Amino acid sequence: MTSPAPAPERPAVPAEAVLDTAADDFVLPFAVEGLDVRGRVVRLGPAIDTILARHDYPEPVSALLAEAAALAVLLGSSLKVEGRFILQTQTDGPVGLMVVDFEVPDKIRACATYDADRVAEVARRDATSGETVGALLGVGHLAMTIDAGPNSNRYQGVVPLDGGSLEDVAHTYFQQSEQIPTVVRLAAARAFRGGTDHDREYHWRAGGVIVQHLPASETGRVPDLPPGDAPEGAAIPDFDEPDEWTEARVILETVEDHELTDPSISAGNLLIRLYHERGVRVFDPIDVIERCRCSQDRITEMLQGFSPEDQAHMVKDGEIVVTCEFCSTRYHVDPAILGIKTGSGD
Predict the structure, then answer these.
(1) pLDDT in tens, 43-86
(2) How many domains are there within the chain?
(3) d(CA 270, CA 15)
(4) Residue-wise pLDDT tens digits, 289-335
């Protein structure tokens, strides 16, 4: 995949100018010229809460999928081409599959499959160890795909999953494939919405920050790494970190989870807390909305790709019913549209 591009070519303003930026569902690009870094902050509120509420996932699964959504938005919103950025995990863990589909520039949908008994066991065993995310993911791979449309080739980068967090996987990818020093922080939490002591209401929130060292001069760049996705086991050479990058990285590593999800802490306030002394500046925020790509026409087109035999087996009580895995919408298709003749016995 292409790496996140530098900040858009439009005037930047000091971070103080966005202290009152909406707390939910946006990406905020920023730059710290004094440290040669660019980055983005993402905040997800109603968008991720809507996605998770449709499925009634166990809490650990919801938290994991929310972090995956934040990561996908951080990466996908940086693309300068129309199309889709798809983040997918496939593993032997309790959460066997996660898919986050981000349609540039602003639409997101996500879903997961899981083994409820294994998820519950992990939650009981690892609740206090801090290893829950790795245990839920297990061993497998994470794929990041850029689909720029029918007239372009797809690009896919694949990173092994071996019990680490999504942050760890992102760092491995950028170290091995993009050759750009990168730090990512992700968090998800259930926040109190209202209600009484006996009927308290909560909603899901997620947030994240990505910071990358993108020096203007060649002297600040790191040595070349193996081009493309480095093969498994390939030696990654050490390099001496520039002082500016060390400072930027260490500062970001101080971010606490609640700072990424607390609606009372604006993205502007967070950036000022981190990089005010170095003159952090921000660009226009980009809204993020929850929106599924499914439709009656898309479902019908998908069914037309099956063989007549398979189509016939899908008919129940005189119709074909398809449920979207992302948004749980049920679509009813008349078999006659597909050229299937049904009798009273179907």
Answers:
(1) 999 999 999 999 999 999 999 999 999 999 999 998 887 899 99
(2) 2
(3) 9
(4) 999 999 999 999 999 999 988 888 899 988 999 999 999 999 999 98
| Statement to judge: residues 273 and 301 lie in one domain | no
Q: Domain range spanning residue 301?
A: 296-338
Are 31 and 138 in a shared domain? yes
Residue 211 within any structural domain of the chain: yes
Residue 83 lies in a domain: yes
| 151 pLDDT more than 80 | no
166/265 same-domain check: yes
